[in-house]
């Protein structure tokens, strides 16, 4: 082809190396993952790299939405509010474009909020979206064109573009801007042909359409009949409800009649019951009278018996009185003899003189011993005070010693406060079951560790994982299984330590060079613990490989790795180095040292030894004082024993004197008593007088007995009369009760009939209510289908009046409709759609035909302008694409798919092959793999670089799925294309890049990272700082903090 090569308008770069429309700054706030970000891309190839999830695609979304794109374009969310950062109300994007000169800046700001509202600003001034669109179109920025803007979520769509669509997108992105206009102009001639085809199709289908309409009318009539079905059901339910209501009224009438008859029968029964109550009341009255008489009879009989007993008693007293007189004379004679004997014994008692001198001597000795004992007691009291003071000091010393020696409780409480809520219960369980273990069990690990300095405690606590601090350590598998079963609910780990005799501990050696950079110890050297515990900590946390340095080590942290150190602790920072498994690269991280929260309690060794010595001294002093105290106590006891012995001798002498006095006094008292007794016997009452009084009492009692007998006779007569009246009344009550029972039988029978009538009425009432609810439900169902209007009511009158007849009619009409067969069920819809299109095309064609004459001459001219230019454009793309593709794969070509004058079906075909044995195949989502489609897509975009008429291009993660060889070649293509003088600005986003890639001056690296201290390192990196300066900056920030 000899057509001239199509060139885009020449756009020269300014002194700043930017083209008009290039993005020179991106600022976002509260947008997706970012609080605030300011990014200044380069003028050529911008490589935006960062881990997945760090926010690379947020930049793509900001460019698209900030330059007039809609959320649907990105395939991420349907609303603009979804791009506001979670937890914030509003945010914005600010895109600064380079104008026609380096001094001209075009700032486009889009403010968005969570309520899906947008506000546009142009250079700080409020503007409409149309104004923004005009500014963007001036630079031919097309964020909806996949050849210019290919976000991550739409990479797969490029391979799915049809040849026609790919041609349209390419025409808009590259070549002469008049190409799309010429293409649309050439498509006018096709309308007439389309109109004739549509009319011919509709003419062929008119008969079928008429049959479809006839079928639709029959189905509509059947549907109309179906609307009457629920109303017929409603009428049927209404008839059932009225019938149930009549049955309810009839049952109510029968119930009233049964109740009336029952009341009529109950009246004579109630009258008899009243009479029976009167007879029962009379029976009760006579019964009460009879009981009163019987009570009086019993009382009178008891009184007579008591009087008889009293009379008998008086007779017995008379006999006793006679016997007592005889006995009194005998007692007087005995008393006179006893008095004479007692007086004689009193006269014969010898005189007695008490030993007063001996008693006084013993009293003096007792006083002397008591004085000595008081002196010893005073000495004992002084010793007690001294002993108590020393014991108090010993208790205070022991308490302080316990506080320093027993840090277990504090550490257990610290573990509990940190989240291990059941650690104390677990510890107590282990202590309570120690006898069940085969070997020593340690734990929790936190209470087994002793560390001297707080700084080392902070290192150790931060280095060892938290689950180990609350773990228990066993040395036997059986103990481990026992602990695991019983401590499962306490949320603690159980670690079994098996002694390894072949393990050689890492030797501790600090070289002179290491010492010079501030290294002085290793983490496994700064604490004490039982052997098993220490072995577990070293094995689980790698303490043998963690070194400790001074502040000087902070300044020389970069050198630590050269000694093979992978973990370093300094007073302010924790440095860690890790080696990649894949490339062998070493990466470093630094964290601030946190204060210890668990290892809070440690012991001071010097103070502990001092306290132990003081306690030993106090124990010896207390032992000496207690020995002296016991000696004094023994002396006091000897003195008290001697005094007690003398006191006993004195008391014996005193008791002996008192006994002699008591014997003399007793004899005198005995003589006096016998004398008084004899006198009293002589003064006793005369027997004749007493006997006369007893006879008179017996006579009075007999008179009272006679009166009681007369009263008993009277009461027996009354009881007989009352018993006869009571029997008569009871017989009358029994007769009434028999009559009442006979009437109650009749009443119960009537009550049963009344109850049956009541149940029948309730059933009828319930049934009527059920029918009413069914009627209401039928009405609601009918109304939900259709509401009867006057027109519909007239239509219903023409239909069958029973459900069976109506169902039969519906079935007949439906069968008649179904008998009308046709192949295409959508024929009516298609016919009407084509009819509408015919009308539209007729109107349009009438307008177009008026212009046709004038444009027929232009058609050949337009085709002559458009087709050669398009062929030349595709040839240039094919030339670049084929050349680039040969470097990366086997072969590829881009060709124009021509269709004569059918300009709507013109398209671009991309054909590729990746294997020598294969053939060229059209690029699609079915023929090539994901990586092959990515390679083809990026090469096509690179082929457009020199022809594009847009200021920038965005491609998001196009290298995902490529093998390393293709990815390296693709990158070289991008760098070479970006180095061309007239190439547009390009953004390539990727989470990773291969090592040892060849970069050029045209490449700008934009690294996206997230983290708590990213701001300060980013400032250092921005100005070319090193890792050492970054570490120094972080250390300084920690010291300030």
From TrEMBL:
GO terms for molecular function: ATP binding; single-stranded DNA binding. GO terms for cellular component: nucleus; Smc5-Smc6 complex. One of its GO terms (biological process) is double-strand break repair via homologous recombination. Residues 184-289, 318-418, 629-684, 733-785, 824-862 form a coiled coil. Pfam families: SMC_N. Keywords: ATP-binding, Chromosome, Coiled coil, Nucleotide-binding, Nucleus. The keyword ATP-binding applies. It comes from the Eukaryota. This is Structural maintenance of chromosomes protein 5.
